[in-house]
Amino acid sequence: MTQYSETFPGSEKPFRSFIMGGFECADHQNAFGERVDLTELTGHDRYIAEDYNSLREIGISTVREGIRWSFAERAPFEYDWSQVEDIIFQAKASGIEVIWDICHFGFPDDLTPLHPMFARRFAHLCRAFVLKYRSLCPEGNLTVTPINEVSFLSWLGGDVRGTSPYCVGQGWEVKYMMMKAYIEGIEMMREADPHVKIMATEPLIHIVSPDPADTALVLKAHEKHQEQFQVLDMLTGKICPELRGKPEYLDMIGVNFYCDNQWTVTDHQYIPWDESPPNPSWRSLYSLVEEVFIRYGKPIVISETSMAGHKRYPWLKMIAEECITILQSGIPLLGCCIYPIIDRPDWDFPSHWHHSGVWDIHNPDTLEREIHYESKVALEEFRQQLSAPEVPAAEEIQIL
After folding, report:
1. CB 267: neighbour CB atoms within 10 A?
2. At what angle do helices 373-386 and 312-329 cross, to 10 degrees?
3. Neighbouring residues of 13: CB distance < 8 A, sequence distance ≥ 6
């Protein structure tokens, strides 16, 4: 295993807790054209104080939250910050640190990424958010994800008609226009506050040929695998320089990693993650994170990971072991976010709940949170592993 321990020396603790919790905040139009608001459906907007206190009880003090663009801007350039204010006040009261999504999934009703005003509207929203935030929190770090998972969202809306703009064969165009907005948003945020930190969150995937002996398929799989880096390459100015991307627009990389993030190139068969002996096509989280780190040389956050159903404990155990391996290699891994931390319903069929959080919701009427005991145990074991002497402490990692 390659050692990277000389790369990021320092003494500043980057986040309050290494294990983080993410609250599902998608507010997009689903495959049926219906607006979904998972903050409202999960009750997090009403039970935020209780949710934060529950996280503190299990040692989590850093969270991912979203401002919900469709809620915050109901009319062009007119902003409702009431929910943002509530998050800020409740976070302060509970000792919680927030990493902010400006756009998780979802745009106002009158916008799509292909609308000529999309980038301008988004950039002004970004600036207005930073000004609002700094009016309430003039000191301290502010970490922002402008748009979550541009790669996935551009595929969902641009290629398979799963959300706005409901296109087929327009994935690149949607991606390009979203990155135009993304970069202009960073420019306006940095005008308001030059110290805003940008965490770009993207799916971490692996695409492989179903037949290693088929040279054409191997090359095709490699080509599709490399497409996952287009967003970060645009952001850093490696491609599409007309968008004005710069390396300094990327402070840290969030990688979203789930059990269905690895598949074969032609027939899209998912590669099993838990076979014994291991499936030879499955790549470890460590190996995929290493690939990203070698390419960009930026600190990493596992910004989303979870498992639905009865395999939550083995999945979280595997994630913990992989995080320890990454830390021991010296790669600057700043945290691991369980997402969602609270159960969530399906986007397209909201009556179906995934049971993928550390807290389940079995009754959608009462929205009572019920701890998933095995997940709680897995996180306790994870925390114990992080405190082992041979694991580098978070205090040894600095964001440069």
Report:
1. 7
2. 10
3. 394, 395, 397
Residue listed under structure tokens 């799509």 = 112
Q: How confident is the model at residue 12 (pLDDT cuts 50, 70, 90)?
A: low
CB of 361 closer than 8 Å to CB of 370: yes
Residue-wise pLDDT for 109-148, tens only, equals 999 999 999 999 999 999 999 999 999 999 999 999 999 9
For the full predicted model, state whether its pTM sits above 0.70.
yes
Q: Which residues pair with 206 in a beta bridge?
A: 262
Q: How far is CA 381 from the centre of its chain?
A: 23
Pair 66, 106: CB distance under 8 Å: no
Nearby residues of 81 by Cβ (< 8 Å), 6 or more positions away: 72, 129, 132
Q: Per-residue pLDDT tens for 316-326?
A: 999 999 999 99
Residue 379 corresponds to which tokens in the numbers above? 């996180």
Per the listing, tokens 């756009």 go with: 103
Half-sphere exposure for 297 (CA within 13 Å, toward CB): 7
Quickly list H helices, the chain: 38-41, 48-57, 69-72, 82-94, 118-136, 150-158, 171-192, 215-226, 230-235, 285-296, 312-329, 373-386
Q: Which of 90, 94, 71 is nearest to 25 (CA)?
A: 71
d(CA 215, CA 221): 10
Q: What angle do CA 196, 239, 298 make, to 5 degrees?
A: 40
Are 25 and 38 contacting, i.e. CB atoms less than 8 angstroms apart? yes
